[in-house]
């Protein structure tokens, strides 16, 4: 019994610092945001309790629906790059037997480690209406299709989402590439002996071994879409009008520009709730897949 008590005390001593850190950095800010969302508060003076008025105002706002639509567009573009293009690039690079493999691998991953400011400035110059590379290419080809990519309400959010997806596609690529290279060659050799085609080998060997990489990419893409801010701030500043606003940018604008901290806290709470909902769905999907896989075995 004494030994058990000593073990419990040791366990508590090891867990306590992490639990304290979590409480200070995560739990307390969430509780503070929940409380702040119930106030009419400018962030400086003492706030006035207004209950759920900030949330009612947020849910009945047309801007809230626009932010949700932009988040879904952002997420779709991110998933397209991270789940499809990133995986195809990893599969192609693994198949290439060349000394240039390391160069291609570094080139794919390079945008991830470059500052977002540098990436955004580069693409701003490419999408510039007058001197941008993209419109210049159309002009050289004799095509009259020229766009004001970042000031057009129909294309602005797609362009911003594309820049984020382009920057972080290399992260997904590296996850897939590392996982594929870690699969034992004996699996593929046995499949070849059994007469399996390349597609069958990828379907029954490669893809099942990439489940954790897929889970990571889904979580990362979802988090980036819901919390999209820096690329929007640098490239469009939320414009044209409010057409590239997301909840994260709306939180910044209301809290730090308009001085409505209570409303900003309410937006922050919704961001946390949406993140938890998406993460729960992703984990449930993958856990269900794991259960089916165990049953089939």
UniProtKB/TrEMBL annotation:
Gene Ontology BP annotations: transmembrane transport
Pfam families referenced in this protein's UniProt entry, alphabetically: BPD_transp_1
Subcellular location(s) of the protein: Cell membrane
Main location: membrane
Ranges for domain ABC transmembrane type-1: 68-282
Transmembrane segments: 72-96, 108-126, 156-177, 213-235, 261-282
Membrane topology designation: Multi-pass membrane protein
InterPro entries the UniProt entry points to: ABC_transporter_permease, MetI-like, MetI-like_sf
Keywords: Cell membrane, Membrane, Transmembrane, Transmembrane helix, Transport
Domain of life: Bacteria
The keyword Cell cycle appears for this protein: no
CDD domains per record: TM_PBP2
GO cellular component: plasma membrane
Assigned protein family: Belongs to the binding-protein-dependent transport system permease family.
Protein name: Sugar ABC transporter permease
Organism, scientific name: Yeguia hominis
């Amino acid at each position: 019994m004494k030994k058990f008590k000593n073990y419990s005390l040791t366990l508590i001593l090891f867990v306590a610092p992490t639990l304290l850190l979590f409480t200070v950095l995560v739990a307390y800010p969430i509780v503070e945001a929940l409380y702040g969302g119930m106030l009419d508060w400018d962030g400086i003076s003492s706030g006035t309790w207004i209950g759920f008025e900030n949330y009612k105002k947020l849910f009945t706002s047309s801007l809230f629906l626009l932010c949700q639509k932009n988040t879904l567009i952002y997420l779709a573009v991110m998933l397209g790059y991270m789940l499809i293009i990133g995986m195809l690039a990893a599969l192609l690079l693994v198949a290439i037997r060349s000394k240039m493999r390391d160069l291609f691998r570094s080139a794919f991953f390079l945008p991830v480690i470059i500052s977002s400011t540098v990436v955004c400035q580069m693409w701003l110059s490419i999408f510039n209406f007058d001197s941008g590379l993209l419109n210049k290419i159309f002009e050289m080809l004799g095509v009259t299709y020229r766009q004001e990519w970042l000031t057009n309400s129909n294309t602005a959010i797609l362009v911003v989402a594309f820049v984020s997806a382009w920057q972080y596609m290399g992260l997904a690529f590296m996850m897939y590439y590392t996982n594929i290279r870690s699969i034992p060659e004996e699996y593929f050799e046995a499949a070849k002996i059994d007469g399996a085609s390349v597609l069958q080998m990828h379907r029954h060997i490669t893809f099942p071994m990439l489940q954790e990489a897929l889970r990571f990419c889904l979580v990362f893409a979802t988090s980036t879409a819901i919390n999209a801010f820096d690329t929007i701030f640098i490239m469009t500043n939320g414009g044209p009008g409010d057409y590239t606003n997301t909840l994260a940018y709306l939180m910044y604008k209301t809290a730090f520009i308009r001085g409505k901290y209570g409303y900003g806290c309410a937006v922050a709470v919704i961001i946390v709730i949406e993140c938890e909902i998406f993460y729960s769905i992703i984990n449930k999907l993958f856990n269900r897949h794991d259960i089916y896989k165990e049953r089939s075995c």
